[in-house]
């Protein structure tokens, strides 16, 4: 696109944007010729309404502004400026709302309002980091405004501003106007200094508003009479300044926060969807099945993810019960059904670790309730982890038994040399029970006087240890027991190392050698043999210690992996709670799929069967058989009605074709038809631009609220209202005059059956950025308000007439009528993608005198070609066909051959479903559930229609 084109488009947008405001200024100017009081009132009321609007918008949207304190302060300030301006308008000379007041009073109110406005604008730029709450601002401005009004009307201490018989404007008034201009200039400078805090568009509009206000104040310093032209021009500049404030604080100031909010929400949804699709843990959603006593006896699989199928090996389990997949599950000691049933019925989450005998695996299962009677489970395969823990337990028991069984004392410490283990022999030799010794230093528990001749040390000290313990250290000495007695011992000290080969503690193995010393002299000859034996035994113990060290390292590593996996499972469980809202779209997709099966499959076959019976009935001579065939035909018709009703309940066509408003109108008729419940629906909006998931969520929420009204409210009617709130909020209200209830008593934890539906609606509405409010009390009815973000669609839907338009329609019908009257048979062409249904129509029509079926087509392109080739009198056209649909095929045939009469076919009976094809050129609409005689009559009527 060229730069000139962009400039032209920008100019057009600005012209369209400012045209209404310019028209309003012209209207204000024209009003001055009629009555200056009218102009003055309109100008001041424009400013008052704009000021109040600024307050309402900034007050309710203050949490979304980047600079909360600034916008809250300015919004509250303009509320009270508007109050003073409104009082100024009411007391203006000639209005006579408050008679008896001179021109001085409205001038005093004017100058006080300008002081309040200018000082507030200047002060707002010093509040960016303020933590004062908005209600305090509101209280402060209220106090100041009351004092101003009291000083003018009650105490009369406010300086005179206009003396009607003494020169007009007073010196105080003129000086005040210049002071106000100075304050506004300072505010303009402060705005420029703070420009980086604001969006560029917002900054420009605020700057323009302050500059125009300064010009307006300068004009008000020169007028002589309150009805003078300078006064009028000053009011025009005031209107422009307030318009700039509107563009800055209401239009521009709100668009940025909300656009950012919706962008963040969309990004969050994409992240949640990616997480759900790539999770490695198994996920399944279930519905609990109860017996007649309300006891859980089974549960059904509703949905699973690929990871679940990979972990369990089960495929296509949706709709199946667990007892079908695992027949012996009720014999399992874990009692899965009862524990999961408790989760679904009571709402408390649970974690279960159990073994599946059929799958031969151990699973860690986290179960959560998503709504009453349903729960989700998250599966993790912990078979390897369980095997590792079992092996570690066996090794630990083996080690414990070994250490408790050997005849030597064994003491182990941590890296800080504090006792962590003592076997019974060590307790007996040291006199320290393990319970008392744990946590104490090794020197306190094992104090020994070494014998220099038996070790490398040269002095006597408690438990001498060399710095290098890479190899075991052995020596002998006198063990000082807890009771201060001494026994000779020999000891071996080994160092424990962690996985980094760092010192993690020591192991001290010692024994009582009293008997050795007693018989030492007698056994000197066997000393060498004894030393060899001791060395061998020491080496054996060393190997045992090394094995112990390895087992401890394996245990530490296993516990670390277990801890990390546990933390990961907890994090994923928290994330999955937020993904529960995504299940809504999956449910709606399944409902549409089932509705499509009913419409395109079952109903088509039943309609064909009904047509076959209709033709058969005319051939049966036996009255009894004919009556039976007629009853069968009626029964099939009833089945068609039931299937059509079920299809509409599952997936309302009006909702998917016409949007939310059309769907709610359909729901009103449905509630009246099925429950004799009157739904009074009123909508102020004709076109909406909402995503499909939001439309479905709002529709299902309204249907759930109406069902609650039918079951619990005790009233035959409810009122549903759809309207716009603000510029981008959609408000939907459901009210009834029923029994009402206490909302605080309806909670998920206290009353699961009654509260879960409302709780689910609230959670899903808040997920998409909306609000759900319940207003009710016993005996006063109930009201439910849903507020959602939306965008207005600029293109309104095109209304279709029930009959096609065209100047040549009547003449074409005359021509066809004359041509058909000269023939013996009406030539009919069939178009339907269901072969069974086409065969049924063919059998029904071939037995009818005066009608000849000349061809059949199964898609849109084929019927267009056959119509061009065969030129039939009547075409029976199905609305939904592959290729091009029946609507487009009708449009093409009608354009080329308007003399061919086209009858629309559909499984629905209501004519509004065929509006599009009738607008394309069809002459009438026939339900596929009609009888053969009704179809013949429709064909004949199409030929004779003028």
Explain how this protein is built.
With 946 residues, the chain is α+β, with helices and mostly antiparallel strands. It has 6 domains: 20-260, Rhopdopsin 7-helix transmembrane proteins, CATH 1.20.1070; 282-381, Beta-Lactamase; 388-522, Beta-Lactamase; 532-651; 652-797, Histidine kinase-like ATPase, C-terminal domain (Heat Shock Protein 90), CATH 3.30.565; 809-944, Response regulator (Rossmann fold). 55% of the residues lie in helices and 17% in strands. The strands form 6 sheets. Strands 9-8-13-12-11-10 form a 6-stranded antiparallel β-sheet. Strands 4-3-7-6-5 form a 5-stranded antiparallel β-sheet. Strand 16 and strand 17 form a beta hairpin. Helix 2 (36-60) packs parallel to helix 8 and helix 7 (200-219) packs antiparallel against helix 8. It is flat.
Could you give a short description of this structure?
With 946 residues, the protein is of the alpha+beta class. The two termini are 52 Å apart.
Q: Shape from CA axes?
A: flat
Treating each run of at least 4 consecutive H or I residues as one helix, how many helices?
A: 28
Strand content: 15-25%
Q: Biggest sheet, strands in spatial order?
A: 9-8-13-12-11-10
Mean pLDDT across the residues is 78
Cα end-to-end separation: 52 Å
CATH architecture term of the largest domain: Up-down Bundle
Instruction: Tell me the count of domains.
Output: 6
CATH class of the largest domain: Mainly Alpha
Rounded to an integer, what's the Rg over CA atoms? 45 Å
What is the CATH topology of the largest domain? Rhopdopsin 7-helix transmembrane proteins
Helix fraction, binned, reads 55-70%
User: Total number of β-strand segments?
Assistant: 25
Low-confidence stretches: 1-7, 259-264, 452-461, 748-753, 793-823
Major pleated sheet: 6 strands, antiparallel
